[in-house]
Design brief:
By secondary structure, the protein is an alpha/beta fold. It has nine helices and nine strands. The relative contact order is 0.14. S-adenosylmethionine binds next to strand 5.
């Protein structure tokens, strides 16, 4: 799967991708991430990408033309991109959306805004989707673009090794929080590891983890249970 991040700050993206699993995934050819700076597509000496907002307001707005030219440039390539504008006003990014995106595969262009945002006419003309990281305001879309890339890449075959298996993660499978995890030592600062996890009985351990997962979700994120079907609730012993 391929991502192109359209950004005024490509080094933010490249710096993040130099480390860890995403770096390995790129090196193995499992994941392609490129950047494209809309400043390349300006014609004035200053490389102007922003201008004052019509109707007033403090901030500058990203002009539509350089962003449009960047997308058109990508469209000239072999794989026409699905264009995603990162915006606090978009669909809230979550694990289900990450699964949707890994299923769609192909080429995704992630458009990062800066300043007070992007001229709405660019969004109307080019956005196939608008994605938000949450109900808060970032300085720019780069952190959101990286979150999208990392969550999708984790679901791509071969990106995670066994050590980081995603199958039991929170929001995966039944959509609940994962049970708490423990490693050695068995006792630390007076806290002990729950006895069932030390039993060696696989079935008992699984049942215990499932119970903890449900209890933890009830306590911390009861909203996640509201999204389950009657059958799913019955399977969890909750209906
Ligand atoms: C300072 S924000 C502009 C916010 C805009 N004035 C508004 O209130 O909707 C600049 C850019 O950061 C990115 N951004 C900010 N918050 C975001 C969020 N929660 N999710 C995704 N992108 C975000 C967007 O690309 C946005 O164009």
């Amino acid at each position: 799967m391929k991502f192109t991040v359209i950004t005024l700050f490509p080094d933010l993206i490249e710096g993040f991708l130099k480390e860890g699993l995403l770096s390995s995934a790129r090196a193995k050819g499992l994941l392609s991430v490129e950047t494209l700076n809309p400043r390349r597509f300006t014609s004035d000496v200053h490389g102007t990408v922003d201008d004052r907002a019509f109707g007033g307001g403090d901030g500058m707005v990203m002009k539509p033309e350089p962003l449009a030219a960047a997308v058109e440039h990508l469209r000239e390539g072999a794989d026409r991109p699905h264009v995603v504008v990162l915006s606090p006003q978009g669909r809230r990014w979550n694990q289900a959306l990450a699964e949707e995106y890994v299923g769609r595969g192909g080429h995704v262009a992630l458009v990062s805004g800066r300043y007070a945002g992007i001229d709405q006419r660019f969004v109307a003309e080019y956005a196939d989707d608008e994605i938000s990281l949450g109900d808060f305001i970032l300085n720019g879309g780069e952190v959101a673009a990286l979150a999208v890339i990392e969550t999708v890449a984790r679901l791509m075959p071969g990106v995670l090794g066994n050590r980081e298996s995603a199958a039991k993660d929170s929001f995966t499978n039944n959509g609940l929080l994962e049970a708490p995890q423990y490693t050695r030592p068995r006792e630390w600062k007076g806290h002990t590891v729950p006895a069932p996890l030390l039993s060696g009985n696989h079935a008992e351990i699984e049942a215990f983890k499932n119970t903890l997962s449900v209890l933890r979700t009830l306590k911390l994120r009861p909203d996640l249970l509201a999204g389950l079907s009657e059958q799913e609730l019955r399977d969890l012993g909750l209906n």
